[in-house]
Design brief:
The structure holds two protein chains of two kinds.
Chain A (H helix, E strand, L loop, with lengths): L2 H29 L7 H11 L9 H25 L15 H12 L9 H4 L2 H31 L9 H26 L10 E4 L5 E4 L4 H10 L20 H25 L3 H28 L2 H5 L17 H14 L14 H12 L10 H18 L7 E2 L2 E2 L2 H27 L1 H4 L6 H16 L14 H31 L14 H36 L5
Antiparallel strand pairs in A: 1-2, 3-4
Helix pairs in contact in A: 1-9, 1-12, 3-4, 3-6, 3-18, 4-18, 6-7, 6-8, 6-18, 7-8, 8-9, 9-10, 9-12, 10-12, 10-13, 10-19, 12-13, 13-17, 13-19, 14-15, 14-19, 15-17, 15-18, 17-18, 17-19
Chain B lengths: L8 H9 L6 H13 L3 H4 L3 H22 L5 H38 L4 E7 L2 E9 L8 E5 L8 E11 L1 H4 L5 E4 L6 E2 L4 E11 L7 H10 L7 H27 L9 H11 L2 H20 L2 E3 L2 H9 L2 E5 L5 E12 L5 H11 L6 H14 L11 E3 L7 E6 L2 E7 H8 L5 H12 L3 E7 L2 E12 L3 H10 L3 E5 L4 H11 L3 E3 L4 H13 L4 E5 L5 H6 L2 E5 L4 H6 L2 E3 L6 H39 L17 H25 L8 H34 L3
Parallel strand pairs in B: 9-16, 9-18, 16-17, 18-19, 19-20
Antiparallel strand pairs in B: 1-2, 1-3, 3-7, 4-5, 4-6, 4-7, 8-20, 10-15, 11-12, 12-13, 13-14, 14-15
Helix pairs in contact in B: 1-5, 2-5, 4-5, 4-9, 5-7, 5-9, 5-10, 5-22, 8-9, 9-21, 9-22, 10-21, 10-22, 11-21, 12-13, 21-22, 21-23, 22-23
The chains are: A mainly alpha, B alpha+beta.
Chain lengths: 565, 689
């Protein structure tokens, strides 16, 4: 680790927090309907869609509207991918996407996972990229933020029935938040050297005289929303490590900024919406602490290098550079890794499969902790709030009152629903992984022996269920079994969590808001932040510790002992 | 006809309060009950311990099978043994808590009457009655109860007046007066009429009398899970499912590189991870919390009320009798110019010689204390001028002169003439300070004023300060005018007051506070308190109060001491804190258990994972067994804490949280590292594995 490396990390994180503070106020204003500068456009959309933005929806109506939208999106994207061969804007003449892969990809983009069992440049037409994947990048991000808005409103008021209007929320989020930011960031990416063109791929002749095909496409703006919406699905197969998707260290820094700023701002916006900014700061503090800790472990582990390489005479100064771009260096790779997995983004600018065991443990564990540090746009906040309820429930009893959060009593119904929600992650991840290692049809996808192989398959199901979408690597993902099970894992990770979470929102909204006193459990400040961090760490750790012990932890000690598989 | 005297159940309860936590007979009985509670049909109500029992059965079968097949069986048998002990310790904890209540219930049950009641055939004729078993009385029946009779069931005095010994329910053996009409008309079945007679209208159906409810409560028979307990149960069940998934998935995961661990080992891992500590102690904590309240002579109609008590943030307290001593007392003498204070005192004493009211007595006491004036006996030739509502003056005519005291305006009017400015100023000052001025005159001449004051009970200010630190606002309710109320409120240190309060004012105040999102507790005894008692989140009715008040409240104080509301709040908080602390402790324990068991079970596949054995446990078998043993023993070790409750300190929530997180959170992480290591050393020394 170097001082200059840490300075880079500090600079990027500082820029994120500095931007998140004003953005939070703006997001809160969008959530409360106070941003109206595109009112005519809004009205036109409502008129076309037959939407009454003032009509409040209870949690069931809100959830059903969301599910209907997402289902429609899934079907439309599936159809588009299957038919791309006969549709325009297909200069490379790609065939339709095969059914299993189309199923997997459609779920993947609708659920904001953006797991990619394909390489964009060799499978997707420009139309699929723009009208299919990019559209879902916006919609899935807006879906997550809208759900978070609904939960925020539940905590803000007392005795509420309605949580807002899903259609209006989605329209406003896209119009006032995602589109303007994507426009600015997209232009910046163009300026930094990303292509934005509908021209066909270029044939070039190399110095050796060989012919090379250089893929192009409408890259820059898709990458902007890929990061801003914490989607993570790359235009190219190697994602942000590709010279056109990650042209420079500066572009990488802007990508990190882009996939962190909205989740962080949402945590602060929560404080504004519930009328107590300190509450948002406490959540942000916890998120930031995990990001810094995760970055530090990856950076330290990778900078220390692989003991076997060093023993074989590799200069230890550079650390473990296998699978990393020299353009970015250890520090930006570490920060990118921790932020992309903590934020449920799933873009990568290095190969996790080549990381040291501990360096690879961090992204896996950050996903397993529930994608709430800071998590995906919206999903991070609502995931965090579910954990807050559990933390408040257990520890809140210790101040001698039935637990409450922001004046809302946490009772049997909320706990039941919260437990249903947190059960999804271990059940789906561990269940599918355990089946996969014993089922020959699935196990054949795993390319590595020993603990590293287990990490690869464990990571795949964690990434899918956590709606992260990054791949550890070393896994043949485009098989019917993997496409189907990973698709199911993505859907369960998203919707089996959302439904109980929205039921919590409905239940919380209906409760009266109690006044705080000095006898009330304080949910701001370092003590609470520490408690919340502890609960996240212990709850997540307890669930996945045995699996991790057999994967990266075992690999770490085995590697230290000089053994390979 | 049952003529037994009242039973000293209440006294026994009082004695038990200071007594030892656990006694021999209770423990012996509990040890037996622990086994009967193993019945899976009963245990299924407790998901964590139920899972433990199922796993114990499974491992036992495997151990027996191994024995039968001649395979190594000792390790499996030891695991099975300790799993069974884990279940037994949990059922034992509950049995102990129940046993403590049962001892009280037994003495109460003896008081429950198998009495023959004297059922009146006509409401207007006391002579015409026929014997009827108490258990066959219906609501609305009229019964005659005479001196020496036990009151057959709960009811209201319809006619007559009697002194009643209520020791059977209150533990207080001094008889109380019960009469028809007014606020002292409620009688309780099982109490004894000591003198005179009353006609009682029965208000409770057989089996649902106050005494029945009390027995059910202390016995835990009527115990239903409280809302918070249900929520906690769900959390624990959820955690159990999570760990089931984590452990079950190991069968597959571990087979990737080697053999999956044996069933006994996975069973050990599962049971040590699921929250058996809190699962085993949860119901004991609830029973013990209720029991603490009963020992404190307060009966809650439901556990829900006890939990609500912990949440209260506004406390409505009546001024008279709660914040102040019941009566006004003399606190100063203020002479007019030319008269000494001692002169005023002497005249005040003489004018009060025949005054038997507490105010009059307090004047004599104050004069003796301040000036050493001993009140003479009432001379035989004295003519007593009694106080009447019309004159508002009282006093004595003696040969040596006439002495009068009375309301200032009334006395001045009778004397004629103006009061001096100093007198007017003194009267004003007394009124402003919340006192009541009385004027004193000798031989038709004004001497000065007596200051009568509400005396705030000692220590109230400190208690209100403590409540404030807990986040609870105290509100004084009084019939006094605003000026007086404000002065007393300031002296007592309450946060707010309701002056010239009517029952409607109380109700309105409670509704307003609740609309602001606060939970309100109040104490009351009169029928006109009933609506407010019912509206309040915690309504503590006085045992001496009316039936209506007792029905409206959700707690009854058998000592009829409204200040106990404060302790009720503390007991509610303590109950919740104990639950939270042991849950936190239980979950935090798991960290160390992972460090004990995971390296032990995976060391065959990856010997390098021995690096995680930070406790340096001797062998994989001893590590696993030590964790299981620790997991079982910690339940027994924490039984006293569960029964006694975590100590409650009245500080703010933030300080309380910091303290308890440190003890039960960090302590919960650290303790098992030490405990498991010690057990490992011992079983290695004994060569058990």
């Amino acid at each position: 680790m170097t001082l200059i490396g840490w300075a880079q990390i500090a600079l990027v994180l500082g820029a994120i927090v500095a931007a998140a503070i004003p953005l939070a106020r703006y997001i809160a204003a969008v959530a409360t309907g106070h941003v109206t500068f595109l009112a005519p456009v809004e009205r036109a959309i409502y008129a076309v869609g037959g939407i009454d933005p003032a009509r409040g929806m209870d949690w069931k109506a809100y959830t059903l509207a969301m599910l209907a939208t997402n289902l429609t999106g899934f079907l439309a994207l599936y159809a588009l991918l299957r038919l791309q061969g006969v549709l325009p804007l297909n200069p490379q003449g790609f065939d339709g996407v095969p059914p299993w892969l189309a199923f997997n990809t459609a779920i993947s983009f609708v659920t904001n996972t953006n797991w990619q069992a394909y390489s964009g440049e060799s499978a997707m037409s420009y139309l699929s990229q723009m009208a299919g994947l990019s559209v879902q990048n916006f919609l899935s991000a807006a879906t997550g933020i809208a759900l978070a808005f609904a939960l925020c409103r539940a905590f803000a008021g007392g005795g509420l029935k309605a949580l807002g209007n899903f259609w209006a929320d989605v329209v406003r989020i896209i119009l006032y938040l995602l589109l303007p930011l994507a426009l600015v960031v997209g232009l910046a990416f163009v300026a930094m050297g990303m292509p934005q063109t509908l021209a066909p791929y270029v044939e070039a002749t190399t110095l050796e005289g060989a012919t090379q095909t250089i893929p192009l496409g409408p890259v820059a703006f898709q990458i902007a929303i890929k990061h801003l919406g914490t989607n993570g699905g790359g235009f190219f197969g190697v994602n942000s490590a590709h010279p056109f998707e990650g042209p420079s260290a500066l572009a990488t820094a802007l990508q990190i900024w882009s996939h962190q700023v909205i989740p962080f701002a949402l945590a602060l916006a929560f404080g504004h919406i519930v009328g107590d900014p300190r509450q948002g700061r406490a959540l942000l503090g916890v998120m930031l602490a995990f990001v810094v800790a995760g970055t530090w472990i990856v950076y330290a582990a990778e900078a220390a290098g692989n003991p076997l390489h060093i023993a074989a005479g590799v200069d230890p100064v550079l650390g473990n550079m296998e699978g990393k771009e020299v353009r970015f260096g250890q520090a930006l790779v570490a920060l990118f890794t921790a932020t992309t997995t903590g934020a449920s983004n799933g873009a990568v600018n290095a190969m996790f499969d080549s990381f040291t065991p501990l360096g690879g443990l961090v992204p896996l564990f950050l996903i397993q902790l529930g994608e709430l540090l800071p998590g995906g746009v919206g999903s991070g906040l609502y995931g965090m709030l579910v954990l807050v309820l559990l933390a408040v429930f257990v520890a809140g009893l210790m101040v001698g009152r039935t637990p409450e959060y922001l004046g809302k009593k946490v009772q049997a119904r909320e706990i039941k629903l919260a437990m249903l929600a947190v059960l999804v992650l271990p059940a789906v991840i561990l269940g599918f992984t355990a089946v996969a290692v014993v089922l020959p049809m699935a196990a054949s996808s795993i390319q590595e022996q020993g603990p590293h192989g287990l990490t690869e398959i464990l990571y795949a199901y964690a990434s899918a269920t956590g709606n992260n979408g990054s791949a550890f690597g070393g896994l043949t993902a485009d098989t019917p079994w993997m496409n189907t099970t990973l698709g199911i894992a993505m859907a369960l990770g998203r919707y089996a969590y959302i439904v109980p979470m929205m039921a919590i929102a409905g239940s919380i909204a209906a409760k009266p808001k109690l006044a705080a006193s000095s006898g009330t459990f304080p949910t701001h400040g370092p003590l609470f932040a520490g408690l919340l961090a502890g609960v996240i760490l212990i709850l997540g750790g307890l669930q996945f510790m045995p699996a991790l012990a057999l994967g990266p932890v075992a690999e770490h000690f085995v590697l230290a002992a000089g053994k390979t598989f | 006809m049952d003529m037994r005297p009242a039973f000293p159940a209440g006294e026994a309860r009082r004695a038990a309060r200071g007594g030892a936590l656990l006694s021999g007979p209770i423990l012996r009985r509990a040890a037996l009950d622990a086994f009967t509670k193993l019945d899976p049909r009963r245990l299924v109500r407790n998901p964590v311990i139920f899972v433990t029992e199922v796993v114990a059965i499974l491992v036992t079968i495997l151990a027996i099978r191994a024995l039968a097949l001649g395979q190594p069986w000792a390790f499996q048998a030891s695991i099975a043994l300790w799993l069974w002990l884990t279940v037994l310790f949990a059922t034992f904890a509950e049995a102990v808590a129940e046993g403590r209540g049962r001892a009280q219930a037994d003495s109460l049950r003896r008081a429950r009457t198998e009495t023959q009641a004297k059922l009146l055939l006509r409401s207007d004729d006391r002579a015409l009655w026929q014997p009827r078993a108490a258990t066959e009385l219906r609501v609305g029946d009229l019964v005659l109860v005479e001196a020496g009779d036990l009151i057959p069931s709960d009811g209201e005095v319809a006619e007559g007046i009697a002194s009643v010994n209520e020791a059977a329910v209150t533990g207080e053996s001094a008889p109380v007066i019960r009469e028809s009409g007014g606020d002292r008309s409620a009688v309780t079945g099982g109490t004894l009429v000591v003198s005179d007679w009353i006609v009682v209208r029965i208000t409770a159906a057989p089996g649902s009398t106050f005494l029945d409810r009390m027995i059910g409560l202390v016995e835990g028979a009527a115990r239903q899970k409280t809302p918070n307990e249900i929520a906690l149960d769900i959390l624990l069940a959820g955690m159990t499912i999570i760990f089931l998934i984590a452990v079950a998935s190991l069968v597959g995961l571990a087979s990737w590189n080697g053999q999956p661990p044996s069933v006994a080992v996975l069973a050990a891992l599962l049971v040590t991870l699921i929250p058996t500590t809190i699962g085993g102690l949860l119901s004991a904590i609830g029973i013990a919390g209720m029991d603490r309240l009963v020992r404190f002579n307060v009966l809650a109609t439901s556990g829900r009320a006890v939990e609500a008590a912990g949440d209260v943030d506004v406390l409505l307290l009546d001024k008279t009798g709660t914040i102040t001593l019941g009566n006004r007392q003399a606190a100063g003498f203020m002479p007019v110019p030319g008269v000494t204070e001692r002169d005023v005192a002497e005249a005040a004493v003489l004018s009060s010689l025949a005054d038997e009211t507490p105010e009059g007595r307090s004047i004599l006491a104050f004069a003796r204390e301040r000036f050493g004036i001993d009140a003479p006996a009432l001379p035989e030739d004295a003519r007593v001028i009694p106080f009447t509502a019309q004159t508002r003056i009282s006093g004595l005519d003696l040969p040596s002169g006439s002495y009068r005291k009375g309301a200032v305006d009334a006395l001045l009017r009778s004397l004629g003439g103006e009061a001096p400015a100093e007198m007017r100023a003194a009267v004003d000052r007394i009124a402003r300070a919340g006192g009541t001025p009385l004027a004193v005159a000798r031989n038709g001449q004004l001497l000065g004023a007596i200051e009568l004051k509400d005396i705030v009970k000692t220590g109230m200010r400190a208690r209100f300060d403590a409540l404030r630190r807990m986040g609870i606002r105290t509100v004084m309710v009084t019939g006094d005018n605003r000026l007086t109320a404000a002065a007393i409120a300031a002296e007592a240190g309450v946060d707010d007051f309701i002056a010239e309060a009517t029952p409607e004012d109380k109700l309105a105040y409670i509704r307003k506070a609740q609309a602001e999102g606060r939970l309100v507790a109040m104490a009351g005894d009169g029928t006109n308190d009933a609506p407010a008692l019912a509206q309040a989140d915690v309504g503590l009715a006085m045992q001496t109060g009316t039936q209506a008040a007792r029905e409206a409240g959700n707690m009854v104080d058998l000592d009829s001491d409204p200040t106990k509301l404060i302790e009720v709040v503390e007991i509610g908080k303590q109950l919740l804190i104990t639950r939270g602390a042991l849950t936190t402790f239980s979950i935090a324990n798991d960290v160390a258990k992972y460090f004990a068991i995971l390296p032990a079970i995976f060391v065959a596949s990856y010997p390098e994972l021995g690096a995680l054995n930070v406790m340096g446990l001797a062998t994989p078998e001893s590590a696993i067994l030590s964790a299981v043993i620790f997991n079982a023993l910690i339940i027994v070790a924490l039984v006293p804490l569960a029964l006694r409750g975590v100590r409650y300190v009245p500080v703010g929530a933030a300080a309380l949280l910091r303290r308890n997180l440190l003890i039960y959170g960090l302590g919960g992480i650290a303790a098992p590292f030490v405990g498991i290591k010690i057990i490992d050393v011992i079983i290695s020394l004994l060569g058990l594995v």
